[in-house]
Amino acid sequence: MSEKALGRLLARRLGPRWVHTHHHDLTPGVPDYSYAVGGWLELKHRPAWPARAETPVRLSDGSWPAQRLFLRRRAAAGERCFVLLQVGRGLWLYRLADLLRVEGEQQHAWRAAACWVGDTRTADWGQLLGILTGTED
Questions:
Q1: Residue 78 · residue 69 · CB < 8 Å
Q2: Cα–Cα distance measured from residue 30 to residue 66, given in angstroms and rounded to the nearest whole number
Q3: pLDDT tens across the length of the chain (137 residues)
Q4: DSSP strand E in the chain: where?
Q5: Are 94 and 83 a contacting pair, CB within 8 Å?
Q6: Could you tell me which of 66, 53, 70 has the C-alpha nearest to residue 111?
Q7: In sequence order, what are the beta bridge partners of 82?
C-alpha cells in the first residue's frame, strides 16, 4: 500500500465530514490532511521496518523537511499535529513532538512512541478519530 492508498483508506474509514485532503503543488510542506476540529495529519509510508533492529529510522522523502516545519509552526500556534505512519499493514500514529523526539532512532523507540497502533484491516478508526480530535487521549 502506498501513501496515496493510505489516504484513500483513511478518508473511507473516517469519512469526508472529518478529513479534508490538501495536496498542493504550489505550497510545499502543507500536510496531506486537515480535520474538522483544527488539526493536521501527515501520512507517511514505508514498505517495511529496517531489516536490522539497530538501523535508525528516518522519514526521508523530499517533502518531509518542509512538512515538518509547517507542522512545528502549527503546533506552536496550539493546533493538534500528528503523523500517521504505515509500515506494511501496520499503522502507527504519532503526536508531532513524540515523532520529532524519536526521528533517527531505532525502530523500538518508534514503536514505543506511538500514541495509537492499528492494522489496515482491523484498526479501531473511531479510537483514532478520538485521538485526533482530542476526545480520547
A1: no
A2: 8
A3: 677 787 778 777 876 666 666 655 545 666 666 655 678 888 898 999 999 999 999 887 778 888 899 889 989 989 899 999 999 999 999 999 999 999 999 999 999 999 999 999 999 988 998 898 887 76
A4: 19-21, 33-35, 39-46, 80-87, 90-95, 116-119
A5: yes
A6: 53
A7: 41, 95
How far apart (Å, rounded) are the C-alpha atoms in residues 37 and 120? 24
Cell 493510505 -> residue: 6
- Take residue 82 and report the three cell numbers written for it: 500528528
Residue type, 85: L
Name the helix (H) or strand (E) containing 128: helix 125-133
CB atoms within 10 A of CB 46: 17
Q: Are 45 and 8 in contact, with CB atoms under 8 Å apart?
A: no
Q: Single out the residue of 109, 103, 62 nearest to residue 83, CA to CA.
A: 103
Which residues pair with residue 92 across a beta bridge?
85, 117
